[in-house]
Records
---
Amino acid sequence: MRRILLFGGNAAIAAYLDVLHCCCDVHGVREDDGVAEVFFDGDLPPLGEHRVTAQDLPPEVAGDRRTGLEADVAIRVSDRILVRPPWVGTPAGFLGLEIVVPRGMAFGSGEHGSTQAALLALDELWPSPPPARALDVGTGSGVLARFLQLRGAGSVSACDVEEPAVAAARLLLGDSDVRLGGPDRFAPERFDLVVANLDARQLATAWEELLARVTPAGTLVVSGLRPAEQRAFEGRMQSEPIVRRERLGYVALGWGLGGTGA
Ligand SMILES: C[S@@+](CC[C@H](N)C(=O)[O-])C[C@H]1O[C@@H](n2cnc3c(N)ncnc32)[C@H](O)[C@@H]1O
């Protein structure tokens, strides 16, 4: 496992960490103002135009049993939702819903603002009764699909274009139907709730397929947008989002399509 220090502005570090999360197996990150210590496996992606510098740190000294996993903590998304890896205990007194996700090659440990914003939006607009059929597009580790299961969706399906993500999600989600590919892999099926945490470009490409997967009275949640990008997506719908949640510079939007949607 490699250990590096990243230096730069907080926004530049956050943007570069996004790239690292996608390209490498990130085991842990400790962030402080203007610096981040990162534990990971893989090759460092080019720094390119990111305004960060990286410094390799020597391996841990003998006798220090740190592996990087010690940097992991339970992530309290809200008073009601917690995401943690299996090797981190439940914080004392927490009585809400716990999503236990082992860290691996797939995106979705719960650290990222886009994951947290999606969880907050889903929690806020969770339909009653729960959706009979739900779909998570771009499932990564399966973290959002696991939330859908825990909140009582009748059946949960998921897809991702990356094979390691599909493998990770299948492990996490048990009997769920997890497919390699985009939302078109489920055509012509429709779901009462569809969630997709993708970046703006990926969302734009997948948009028509996403809408086509939602039942006419269903619920759509998208996350992964930067605040400056959300207007363009709001404009794609005939109605205002019923939920908008922002976390760590990422926005999630949710629509109830019943009678007013796409
Ligand atoms: C930002 S991660 C989200 C992971 C997880 N759902 C979460 O919320 O933490 C986006 C995932 O979407 C996948 N992806 C990108 N474009 C996709 C598409 N058109 N269809 C399905 N998956 C896609 C990527 O491989 C990646 O695993």
Note: The longest strand covers residues 214-225.
---
Amino acid sequence: MNMKEVVLKLENVYKTYHLGEIETRALRGVNLEVYKGSFLSIVGPSGSGKSTLLNIMGLLDFPEKGKVFIEGTDVTTLGINEMATIRGQKIGFVFQQFNLIQHLTALENVILPMLFQNVAEDEARKRARDLLKMVGLEEKISRRPYQLSGGEQQRVAIARALANNPSIILADEPTGNLDSKTGKMIMEIFKHLHQDKKRTIVVVTHDSYIASYGDQKVLIQDGRIVSNHQTRKEYIS
Ligand SMILES: Nc1ncnc2c1ncn2[C@@H]1O[C@H](COP(=O)(O)OP(=O)(O)OP(=O)(O)O)[C@@H](O)[C@H]1O
Ligand SMILES: [Mg+2]
């Protein structure tokens, strides 16, 4: 059997921002299905709605109209607490600015989301160590973010995103604040997570080289998906 399982689905999603008199129609009827084990790149010009789209996919923001399904559950019908629980369990988010907590060590940053999900502290600590080892930071787990390079901070952020074993990892311009060599190293981690760990990954980028890591490319313009196609042969599972 080779059934494609949809892990995340957007149905006719709209989002308009209001700033005083100014109205920005950031998303205008987006339909998208993300299959389990796929690696999606979302590309498009600045202001086209990429971050808005990713934030809605990651339950960090609400659509104004339309539905968002995570593993078949329509999250737009849920209350804010239930939504936060699903986000914590199913979604790992990586930001351009890393967004680590400055007064916590690398290890503590990775432990924190597990404590929010009531994982026992010993177990959380062990898992955080393993994840930091996976991203090559076992020597630096006691450092705080300001004692780490940008690439190292982003690796901590990836370990943190993986903490609760999410079914989907979303990354908004994860290499945007890094030089190209470091950016490539970060993308190699995503590639490993995809190919070896069979994770589902969505990366927003305006860089076509970064986008080439994906096996499916979605182009967004003026709040609409204008193309969505496979860029490589699918993996046989
Ligand atoms: N909080 C907000 N309030 C008002 N307008 C917003 C807000 N966030 C985004 N916008 C507007 O919505 C549109 C889409 O923004 P979005 O951040 O999704 O674009 P993007 O494709 O991620 O761009 P970039 O490549 O520059 O990051 C833009 O016109 C932007 O100015
Ligand atoms: Mg953006």
Note: The mean pLDDT is 94.
